[in-house]
TrEMBL record:
The record marks H189, R247 as: Transition state stabilizer. This is Acetate kinase. Pathway: Metabolic intermediate biosynthesis; acetyl-CoA biosynthesis; acetyl-CoA from acetate: step 1/2. GO terms for molecular function: acetate kinase activity; ATP binding; magnesium ion binding. Mg(2+) binds at N14, E388. The keyword Nucleotide-binding applies. It holds the Pfam family Acetate_kinase. SUPFAM superfamilies: Actin-like ATPase domain. The gene is ackA. The lineage of its organism: Bacteria, Pseudomonadati, Pseudomonadota, Alphaproteobacteria, Rhodospirillales.
Length: 404
């Protein structure tokens, strides 16, 4: 009797600011087939939740941490928990590689790269440039390198997709002795934008001028011209641009000088303020979670959501200028894919550019990519679900094939 061939698997790890997601892909001859995915959400809140499912939706594992237990459940503890779970749920597959989302690749890494100790050390120098993410992104790769040194690991960078931006879009108006140190605008959420850019041709938007709104816990906009990034709202760090779940987004730099001089805040106080105490959470005083704010009767919750959509509206104007026109607006990520209210408000702010929302389509878009503008709308509006994990698995497989 012939034994069934054991197929190989690629593990993808995507550590966001408030969640860690993992996906297991079977590396079949011609395709990557997702067979299990899961996430822990609500890290560093009082209610962390783990769930893993088969693609059909049936739950394979679930757990909740509440109160002080949840407070102590950080990214490192969550990674250990997840790796334990993965190793007992491989369903007969043999792991051939692990692909990681790594937020900052600096000026050095403009394409996915194999991870070894030297590369991880270099990437660790970017920790100050992404204080919410980089440490958490690198930790699983380091622990796997220590426990299973022979396992092929790949880093995929959020900054890489933006390497095509023209120099002017990347520049700060600062003296050369500072910009020469790599102090420039990089842009983030690049794996998400790269995935969306790959979906645009099928929507008839392959050569189009498109603004993609990646609205998750972190939020940014990207101007894509014929599939390439030409500008984005995030810069040197992932705190620039839009207000986010807990991040301030763009501020008058004079505010920082004022806080240092008049409120005696040091660098770590400012970091905490800008990355963890601002944005939707800071303005509302209630929550960083859009679902909570949208159902809250509190005026401060409404103010936070209004400020979020107002700033998106203004930045859309800025990116349309960078593109020299606009053919389509695309919503993606947690808020962009699921909040009809946010999409409606943003489209309202962009009406002057020629966006005309179809309210029915926006309220009931169904699964997958969906057009939510009227047939006569000069600028099309779409929801396109993103898939950073699929993008990471593809890059990992490509490097793996090249390496063997
Ligand atoms: N049904 C929904 N309605 C409104 N907002 C939602 C919905 N589902 C998820 N979100 C919001 O999406 C955000 C998280 O987005 P996500 O892309 O998963 O974040 P990240 O990967 O950065 O942690 C949260 O603000 C959450 O409230
Ligand atoms: C770069 C970034 O902000 O990522 P996330 O949205 O996952 O926090
Ligand atoms: Mg995310």
């Amino acid at each position: 009797m012939r034994r069934r061939k054991i197929s190989n698997a690629i593990i993808v790890i995507n550590a966001g600011s408030s969640s860690i997601k993992f996906s297991l892909f079977a590396d079949e001859t011609r395709q990557l087939e997702l067979f299990l995915k899961g996430q822990i959400e609500g890290l560093r809140t009082d209610n962390a939740h783990f769930i893993a499912r088969h693609p059909a939706g049936d739950v394979v594992g679930e757990r909740r941490w509440t109160g002080t237990e949840a407070g102590a459940f950080d990214h490192d503890a969550a990674t250990r928990f997840l790796m334990g779970f993965i190793n007992t749920h491989l369903e007969g597959h043999k792991v051939e590689a692990v692909g990681h989302r790594i937020v900052h690749g600096g000026g050095d890494f403009t394409a996915p790269a194999a991870l070894d100790a030297a590369v991880l050390d270099r990437l660790a120098t970017f920790v100050p440039l992404a204080p919410l993410h980089q440490r958490h992104n690198l930790a699983p790769a380091r622990s796997i390198l220590a426990s299973t040194p022979g396992l092929f690991q790949v880093g995929c960078f959020d900054t890489a997709f933006h390497a095509t931006q023209p120099p002017l879009a990347q520049a700060f108006a600062l003296p050369a002795e500072i910009t020469d140190r790599g102090v420039r605008r990089y842009g983030f959420h690049g794996l998400s934008y790269e995935y969306i850019a790959g979906q645009l041709p099928a929507l008839g938007l392959g050569g189009a001028k498109v603004i993609v709104a990646h609205l998750g816990n972190g939020a940014s906009l990207c101007a894509i011209d014929a599939g390439r990034s030409v500008a984005s709202t995030m810069g040197f760090t992932a705190v620039e641009g839009l207000p986010m779940g807990t991040r301030s987004g763009t501020l008058d730099p004079g505010v920082l000088l004022y806080l240092m001089d008049e409120m005696h805040m040091g660098p770590r106080d400012l970091e905490k303020l800008l990355y963890q105490r601002s944005g939707l959470l800071g303005v509302s005083g209630i929550s960083s979670d859009m679902r909570t704010l949208e159902t809250s009767p509190e005026p401060r919750a409404k103010l936070a959501v209004d400020l979020f959509t107002y700033r998106i509206g203004r930045e859309i104007g800025s990116l349309a200028a960078a593109l020299g026109g606009l053919d389509a607006l695309v919503f993606t990520a947690g808020i962009g894919e699921h909040s009809a209210g946010v999409r409606e408000a943003v489209c309202h702010h962009a009406a002057w550019l020629g966006v005309e929302l179809d309210s029915g389509a926006n309220a009931h878009p169904g699964e997958g990519a969906a057009r939510i503008s009227t047939p006569g709308s000069r600028v099309a509006a779409w929801i396109v679900p993103t898939d950073e994990e699929q993008m990471i698995a593809r890059h990992t497989r490509r490097l793996l094939t090249g390496a063997t």
